[in-house]
């Protein structure tokens, strides 16, 4: 099938090329290039189809084209040689001294089609004779570029497919033209754009400029094939800010290539006043808040009254009047909902825990003060411990003292796509729409933390807090750099910048958030079945994250032939549902999928252990209701060629439905557009004043509840249990 299409396309291409060649007789250069392309297409066609057939069909045309190439080549070579002499006579270009380095080492430095920012940094540092070609728009290039002598701007708006290096030269001016002219005198050419990477180059203009050298510049002798800077200017700027002309780059680029592919034309761009938040200031302010400074007129000294954590918590609770900010009734010591009767180990006495928390609190406070002091220009280093503080009161003036703020939830904040991180951004946005998660992370959550040091919860909280900011008329954009760095540290696979699965990432994040806060479940000597399932699935560890997300089903399997009954339990933090695929099937209802899952009339591939018949039903009932019900849709099926394909069937969903004994309300939905391998994640959720918005990396806009438009792409739903039901 694929080959038939290619053959057809190639044959059409040949026709077009031949017509173009006969028209281009006046422009020898263009004619020559078109001829080479023609021969290349013929060669490809031979590889695809029957070589004999192709040769017979095109033999006449091919011999004419080959003749043309033979005559044109020496003419052009002569012309280029003359041009070069002329230019050298006109202005003698001073050649800059370069540090000679053995060629072999350079080859090993630039193996492959891409180089990392680190390799480029090394090359710049060693003063290697490389030429950097930056294809960002001229405005952005002049605002900030890599600090290096051999760098030119070939703006992307002049780049078109099939462009030759000589035509590029004509379009350039001044120094850029001079440098480009002697392009083959450099050791290697390094191309870059804003976020060039192996993922997006195939559909970017970098491909055209690279091809101009590798395919349309046959008269030049390059020392080695050109390379592309992986991560682009963006990553270089992030990694080596001292090596760019200006670090205060305020333009934000989104992944245009993917949008182009998906034809997302109806997007709103961030408002002009939308600004990237200052991460540093934000974290310090928030860190101080998170160590819970009571809102009183006392000085920032740590007094004995303040160190009493129970009292501080109380004062924090009473100071919050906003109904949205009420602290959730979820604690580490068990939950208010009906969970199996396993108790958290009480080996650590309460006072020990209090002391530990207090120690951590003072440590964090001192760190925050030191950081702040450094920023303010002070050099004073605070002594550790409350005693030191008592003798050395920090020089914080009353009027600038940070106050505990009740943060109003706006929610109009986008997230910068760092490295194809739309999957990560979508999960973060879906989670920030859930009030109970916001409330926990906006309050003092330090007492939940059990892992020292915590791996990701602090960075996660910073993102969730940032995402709570912004209004419809004052949109914000946040760069989740520290969070992403932590994620990459926890699993380097995320560093590669591939398109990852959104819900796989959710489970990964969940596990690490849980590990940051987990304590041991007490193992009873005798456990009933459902306790065993609960304990086993959680591997003996629990936290408030488990209380929020986990459900448990009791499953009763009944054989329809011999009536054998068996009970078992299912414990999980997401409800995975397969979306059925049948030719002709247009849509299904989510509620129906859930009901069918709960009342499974025939388990596939499951044999009765007694009569070995495959007629076993499975009835599930909810034993533990989750606070947050995450439903993941498995949207794939095998086609007739056993290929896995994406299932785009519409899934009708309700904004609220009954599950177990409770009612659940929809707060956010994750979407996936594209195929199994290539696509883009974005989502929808509830923000301020119950308004639905669409979030798509940096962009955030009002969603007019056109539910039909997202039924075919929805891949995960985040429902929350309604309190007053
Ligand atoms: Zn049976």
UniProtKB/TrEMBL annotation:
Pfam families: Rhodanese, UCH. It is an enzyme of class 3 (hydrolase). It comes from the Eukaryota. Residues 413-722 form the USP domain. Residues 310-320 have a biased composition (Low complexity). Belongs to the peptidase C19 family. This is ubiquitinyl hydrolase 1. It comes from Rhynchophorus ferrugineus (Red palm weevil). The lineage of its organism: Eukaryota, Metazoa, Ecdysozoa, Arthropoda, Hexapoda.
């Amino acid at each position: 099938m694929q080959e038939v299409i290619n053959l057809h396309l190639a044959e059409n291409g040949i026709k077009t090329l031949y017509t173009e060649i006969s028209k281009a007789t006046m422009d020898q250069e263009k004619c020559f290039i078109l001829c080479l392309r023609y021969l290349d297409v013929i060669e490809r066609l031979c590889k695809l189809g029957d070589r004999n057939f192709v040769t017979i069909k095109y033999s006449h045309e091919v011999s004419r084209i080959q003749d043309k190439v033979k005559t044109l080549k020496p003419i052009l070579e002569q012309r280029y040689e003359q041009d070069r002499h002329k230019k050298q006579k006109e202005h003698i270009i001073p050649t800059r001294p370069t540090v000679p380095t053995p060629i072999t080492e350079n080859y090993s430095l630039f193996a492959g089609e891409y180089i990392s920012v680190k390799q480029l940094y090394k090359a710049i540092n060693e003063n290697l004779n490389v030429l950097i070609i930056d294809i960002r728009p001229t405005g952005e290039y002049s605002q900030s570029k890599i600090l290096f002598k051999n760098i030119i701007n070939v703006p992307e708006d002049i780049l078109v497919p099939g462009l030759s290096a000589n035509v590029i030269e004509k379009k350039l001016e001044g120094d850029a033209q001079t440098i480009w002219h002697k392009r083959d005198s450099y050791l290697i050419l390094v191309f870059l754009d804003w976020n060039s990477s192996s993922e997006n180059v195939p559909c970017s203009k970098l491909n055209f400029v690279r091809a101009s050298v590798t395919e349309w510049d046959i008269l030049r002798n390059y020392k080695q094939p050109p390379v592309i800077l992986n991560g682009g200017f963006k990553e270089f700027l992030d990694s080596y800010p001292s090596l760019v002309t200006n670090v205060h780059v305020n333009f934000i680029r989104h992944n245009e290539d993917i949008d182009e592919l998906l034809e997302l034309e109806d997007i709103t761009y961030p408002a002009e006043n939308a600004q990237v938040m200052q991460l540093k200031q934000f974290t310090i302010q928030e860190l101080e808040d998170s160590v819970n400074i009571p809102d009183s007129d006392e000085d920032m000294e740590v007094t004995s009254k303040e160190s009493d954590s129970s009292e501080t918590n109380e004062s924090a609770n009473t100071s919050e009047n906003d109904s949205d900010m009420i602290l959730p009734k979820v604690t580490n010591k068990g939950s208010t909902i009906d969970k199996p009767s396993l108790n958290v180990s009480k080996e650590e006495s309460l006072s020990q825990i209090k002391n530990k928390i207090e120690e951590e609190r003072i440590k964090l406070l001192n760190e925050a003060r030191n950081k702040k002091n450094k920023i303010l220009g002070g050099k004073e280093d605070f002594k550790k411990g409350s005693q030191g503080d008592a003798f050395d009161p920090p020089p914080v003036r009353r009027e600038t003292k940070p106050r505990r703020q009740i943060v109003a939830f706006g929610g109009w904040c986008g997230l910068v796509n760092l490295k194809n991180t739309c999957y990560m951004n979508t999960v973060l946005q879906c989670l920030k729409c859930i009030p109970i998660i916001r409330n926990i992370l906006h309050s003092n959550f330090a007492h939940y933390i059990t892992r020292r040091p915590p791996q990701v919860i602090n960075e996660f909280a910073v993102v969730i807090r940032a995402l709570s900011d912004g209004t419809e008329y004052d949109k914000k954009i946040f760069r989740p750099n520290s969070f992403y760095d932590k994620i990459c540290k926890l699993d380097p696979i995320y560093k590669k910048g591939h398109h990852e699965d959104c819900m796989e990432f959710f489970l990964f994040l969940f596990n690490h958030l849980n590990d940051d806060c987990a304590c041991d479940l007490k193992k009873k000597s005798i456990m009933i079945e459902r306790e065993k399932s609960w304990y086993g699935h959680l591997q003996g560890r629990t936290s408030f994250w488990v209380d929020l997300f986990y459900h448990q089903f009791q499953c009763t399997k009944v054989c329809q032939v011999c009536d054998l009954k068996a009970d078992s339990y299912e414990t999980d933090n997401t409800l995975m549902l397969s979306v059925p695929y049948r030719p002709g099937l247009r849509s299904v209802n989510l509620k129906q999928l859930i009901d069918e899952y709960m009342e499974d009339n025939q388990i596939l591939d499951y044999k009765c252990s007694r009569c070995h018949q495959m007629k076993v039903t499975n009835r599930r009932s909810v034993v533990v209701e989750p606070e947050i019900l995450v439903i993941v849709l498995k949207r794939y099926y095998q086609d007739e060629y056993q290929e896995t394909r994406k299932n785009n069937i519409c899934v009708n969903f309700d904004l609220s439905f009954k599950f177990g004994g409770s009612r659940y309300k929809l707060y956010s939905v994750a979407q996936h557009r594209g195929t199994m391998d290539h696509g883009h994640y974005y989502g929808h959720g509830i923000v301020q004043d119950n308004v639905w918005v669409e979030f798509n990396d940096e962009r955030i806009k009002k969603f007019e509840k056109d539910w039909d438009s997202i039924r075919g792409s929805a891949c995960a739903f985040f429902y929350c249990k309604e309190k007053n039901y």
